[in-house]
């Protein structure tokens, strides 16, 4: 079948030669001099005919083309020039509004989501029936967006303290201004909606500002725990396809910024490194972006919406099987907003998190505080004396902490009940809470509710005890479900356990993440066929719905609330010239909860191996200190399954004291 | 034998009839002048070979309340051209019944042969020559010194009628617009056009010197039908794009996009921003409908 052009005899050369001319000769561009028709100035009318526009037939006659050829060429030229999406302009006109070109971004001028951003967004699949329920019940709301929350506090309580770090107090107005400037600085550095920005910062003002600025642009924050070094950072940045990193210029004995800059060559997605602290060649300076950028033009950069992803967090494992958790405002902020009244947190509260903001439990402190416009008092890095000093100085009313933090406080004898008397709420989470520890603090802080919370990166805050719960509940359970959450405890044969019966804890609800990012195997394992999330924990539920966590079925090591998968360490150890096989299992610890215990079998000919040699070897491979084994046991042989997998539980039972 | 018709009396009867039905202004254009100015194929005689008169009727534009509406609503609330068409339609029947000669309501539509911007007949030319509107700096939209912004319709008949003269003065630019032009180099319509499609010059006497109208920019914003082929073309997958996109540009199909779009109800013919800020359109002595009715 002949094409339209072939039927009309229009060639590329004709389009190129006549397109512009026909466009101009038509009515597209009109020019009139004087007022010739009204004045019946026929000479002027004739002289201006072409300037006022010719019909297609007149143009065809002038140019010696067929009329149909003129129409086709004109249509082709007009379609080439015309932009679509003009209705956006019209909708912004009138009704008391005057034309402001900057007010409207045309459809075709909108920023395009990158391929990586689209891939991340594609991970957000939900059961439509569940979504309808979440919306109808008011759990998911359109205004649950951090930028919206911040703007509300800036407007309603501009002078209220938003952040307190040492002597520095930052009001919500100042916080809003800093965020607007950093957002513009990041935008100018190329960050757009959907980009992943990795952040490795302690709990400082700059963390909060950076997080909010990333959110303002509609970008996604991926946190990296402070102990992570080049090996973990490389794997994480690669999997997240991070476009930028915000980190310290210099830590104690290394430069995170320089390490990230060195990774740019091997990570094509990574374009920008922003450093907090001293200037680093090749990196942007965070303080400079915050203080010297102009404010982001709100109209040019639309505020993100609640269904947008805003966090990409890694639960454990960085090199072998990364489990990246994509999170939307919907799930995280609804959970925090609904939970704030349950925790009895209001705008007058001052929240201190001993947990790092790179961990979701720490972020939960931010979300709860920002849901009500409370103040966050900041403790950059936890040590027992620093936490004691921060509480005494900043007088927080709420404390987010891991049991290990409080155990260390008690062990180092830095806890002073008088200094802690400002507290009305303690939330302990991150690892199993010894009932005795809860009771010890509850007894010494009679005006403070010492509560427990069970959460995970995948679900944030699913269970918690409430202020006012009976001591037995507060001490021996992780509490009841948060609003919008359902839990069930299932036996090994798939039935729902009776009250008091131990089984596998499963969760679903408006707080649930959509699934691991690009990890089908993990998703297959993590979700039941009917959409419940298998937490991997064992639990019991009493008749009042209070759930006690009784153990974990996973191999994750939980060192003071920081969980990691030892698989990548094992992989490195297996490559050691003296090691035949390795297995790392958790070793109970009274302060940190667990430490890593490493079992090895030696290669033939290797006579001995010490813990120091293992640690030196791993340090040489740039492994994070937190993941270093803290005990080494050389065994003659590993207990193995028929398929030659090491039976870790048997190692643990045989060698590690309970 | 029908009785001889007195042209002046017939004209007065037609004017009275149209005003009774709601027309604000009625005039008769000089046929010979229209025939001379209109391009071939678009002259009255091209449509009605034995035409002897060109009658132009106009109805009022918007209320003051309508000017306050957002553009998306003003496009509907403000589009009163249908009332002009119905008066012209009735007027044609009136002429035939009263005077026994053929008359036709001039179709206010585009010429399928001329393309999507070329009308069958220029209602603007008829009205201007009939003395009920003058071309403005706002893309040649007609304005009237008493009635401001109006909608026009035409009737052709085989009845000879005495012609009116074009307006003696052009109300555009208004004195306030001239003042603004002197200060900032632009009149309100130029400044507030969202597509920046208007440009021009005012001479030392405060009259129009040059009117420039980027109709493509105006149409791009307000007449989305221009974009329909492009929208469809973008929807065509890459592998068939070269054929699909160009097929959409076929002259025989282009009018279809206009028809599809105009009939969809979701598209605009005008954004009205130039008229919203025009002192003649919004503040002409009889542009206020209450005042207007009292005057009658």
Explain how this protein is built.
The complex is a heterodimer of chains A (658) and B (296). With 658 residues, chain A is an alpha/beta fold. Chain A is built from 25 helices and 26 strands. Among the domains of chain A are: 78 residues, no CATH class; 163 residues, 3-Layer(aba) Sandwich (Rossmann fold), CATH 3.40.50.980; 90 residues, ANL, C-terminal domain (GMP Synthetase, Chain A, domain 3, 2-Layer Sandwich), CATH 3.30.300.30. With 296 residues, chain B is α+β, with helices and mostly antiparallel strands. Among the domains of chain B are: 151 residues, no CATH class; 39 residues, no CATH class. Chain B has 16 helices and eight strands. In chain B, a hairpin with a 3-residue loop joins strand 5 and strand 6. In chain B, helix 1 packs antiparallel against helix 6. Chain B is globular. Chain B starts with 6 loop residues before the first helix and ends with a helix. Strand 1 of chain A pairs antiparallel with strand 8 of chain B.
SSE layout:
The complex is a heterodimer of chains A (658) and B (296).
Chain A (H helix, E strand, L loop, with lengths): L3 H5 L3 H14 L3 E5 L8 H6 L1 H4 L3 H8 L3 H15 L5 H5 L23 H7 L6 H9 L9 H11 L4 E5 L2 E4 H17 L7 E5 L4 H12 L3 E4 L6 H11 L3 E5 L7 H8 L8 E5 L7 E2 H7 L16 E6 L9 E5 H15 L6 E4 L6 H13 L2 E3 L6 H11 L3 E4 L1 H9 L13 E4 L6 H10 L4 E6 L8 E2 L6 H6 L3 E2 L3 E6 L12 E7 L10 H7 L6 E9 L5 E6 L4 E3 L2 E3 L2 H8 L4 E11 L3 E10 L8 H10 L10 E4 L13 H8 L3
Parallel strand pairs in A: 2-12, 4-5, 4-6, 6-7, 7-8, 11-12, 11-13, 13-14, 14-15, 25-26
Antiparallel strand pairs in A: 2-3, 9-10, 15-16, 16-17, 18-19, 19-20, 20-21, 22-23, 24-25
Chain B lengths: L6 H14 L4 E5 L1 H7 L6 H4 L5 E8 L3 H4 L3 H7 L3 H19 L3 E3 L17 H7 L4 E2 L6 E3 L3 E10 L17 H10 L3 H5 L5 E5 L5 E7 H8 L5 H8 L2 H10 L3 H12 L10 H4 L2 H5 L5 H7 L1
Antiparallel strand pairs in B: 1-2, 2-6, 3-6, 4-5, 5-6, 7-8
